[in-house]
Amino acid sequence: NPSALEVQEYCILSVALLILLIATNALLTVGLSLKYQNLQPELTKAVHDTLYGDNFSSFINEQVDIVKSTCASPGNFYYTNKEHNTNAFVPCTVVESGKDNTTSYITKGLNSSFVKDDMNKIYYTMLSTCQTGNYTITEDGLNQTIVIPCDVANQGNEEVTNYALSQIAQRAYYENYSCDYWTCIKEGNSLVIVSEKSQEYWMGKFYIALLISLVVIVLLFFMLEKKADLLIIVGIITALSALPILKINDLIVYLLGNSLLQFLKIFETLFNQASYVFNISLTIGIILFVIGVAIRIAGGLEAIQKFFQGDKKDKEIKDLKLKVNTLEKDKKK
Q1: Degrees, nearest 5: CA angle 44-48-52
Q2: Any idea what the Cα angle at residue 212 is, between residues 209 and 216, rounded to 5°?
Q3: Alpha-carbon gap, residue 75 to 151, rounded angstroms
Q4: Which of helix, strand or coil describes residue 138?
Q5: The pairing of beta strand 86-91 with beta strand 135-139
């Protein structure tokens, strides 16, 4: 029988394994959730809500008529200024000849300062559009350049908005951040949380936690007298460790509260694969438990078989001794 100290060490290791596996499941959930294909719908919404909000949709709506008109007239760029009731189709040959020529073409030689101001803002949009054949949106407030294919532009305002947001989201995800993970967050760059850098960071922590968990399992193996019990114990602990994952999102919401709603909208995306990880962990736990029980049952059957085989051999030995004794008695006579 194990001593009290051995039982205490066994309990400590079991609790440590449970905590480690819960942490491992949480890290795996974050790592899988941050894969771009799993994250993309939530990331697009997070980019809209966190960075731009309704201003982005308004900006796109202002651009759509220009995009459609430009796409409908290949080789030209449609310039418009609604405030001054001015519009013109500018040939790309003029645009490519320079900003001053483009300004003169629109003003027809008149001194219109608002056109010059517009050219300072949109000339490179015009030039890029003429060079690529697709409308290119640039805007200082967005700090982004977005190429809108004409087939997307012709689908309407909502499609253009969604396309533009998805482009920004993809760039944000694959951004090559120069700062380390936690420094980026401290500096207020919240989108690093939903980036490829973040995915690699959390998956690295998952592998470390998994390795430590395996070390604890090995320690349990050497501690147990009945080695077959290891699979049963690890199976039960693994299945139990899956349960908190289903409530992890509620826990985060509770901890963050309402004071960080904008950040929370991004943070919730980190656990979109919680159900998947729960199913994996629970399935592995059940499989290990069943295998362990099967080994125990098989071991019990083998012990019973050996018991009966032992009785049979004892009887055979007794019969053999009896025959030998009988033969010796007959010789003496």
Answers
A1: 150
A2: 135
A3: 16
A4: strand
A5: unpaired
Q: Taking the CB of residue 77, how many other CB atoms lie within 10 A of it?
A: 24
* Residue 304: per-residue pLDDT: 47
**Residue 132 has which token pair?**
């690529």
pLDDT per residue as tens digits for the range 164-180: 878 878 887 888 888 88
Neighbouring-strand partners of residue 79: 88
- Token representation of residue 81: 């200024």
Q: How far is CA 162 from the centre of its chain?
A: 21
The better pLDDT of the pair 99, 27 is held by 27
d(CA 170, CA 149): 16
CA distance 163 to 135: 13
3-state secondary structure 248-312: HHHHHHHHHCCCCHHHHHHHHHHHCCHHHHHHHHHHHHHHHHHHHHHHHHHHHHHHHHHHHHHHH
Alpha helical stretches, state H, 54-191: 54-72, 92-95, 99-107, 113-132, 150-153, 157-173, 181-186
C-beta of residue 285 within 8 angstroms of C-beta of residue 235: yes
- Mutual orientation of helices 36-47 and 4-33 as an angle, nearest 10°? 60
Residues 6+ apart with CB under 8 A from 267: 193, 252, 256, 260
Burial profile 228-248: b = 16 or more Cβ within 10 angstroms, e = fewer: bebbbbbbbbbbebbeebeeb
